[in-house]
Amino acid sequence: MAKNAVPVWNKYALTLDEAALYFGIGKNRLREMTDSQNNPYVIWVGNKRLIKRESFEKYLETLYCA
Q: What is the dihedral of CA 13, 43, 21, 3, to 10 degrees?
């Protein structure tokens, strides 16, 4: 890790690669889950998508928690 790099668990938004490693979800599945332009947990920078880490965690909890 670079000297000034921010750990993934402290980042506000993650790239698809970072999110795939962090959440244990494949990049293709993440793309499917975040394709809509209206997702509250996605930030679009041009064609690049960044996933809001905490918002996506909360979203996943609503899907998979009993």
A: -30
**What's the CATH class of domain 8-64?**
alpha beta
The model's pLDDT over 44-54, given as tens digits with 9 standing for 90+, comes to 999 899 999 99
* Residue where the block lists tokens 């690049």: 48
Question: What kind and span of H or E run contains 51?
Answer: strand 48-52
pTM, whole model, 2 decimals?
0.82
Reduced to 3 states (helix: H, G, I; strand: E, B; else coil), residue 52 is strand
Cβ–Cβ under 8 Å, residues 43 and 50:
yes
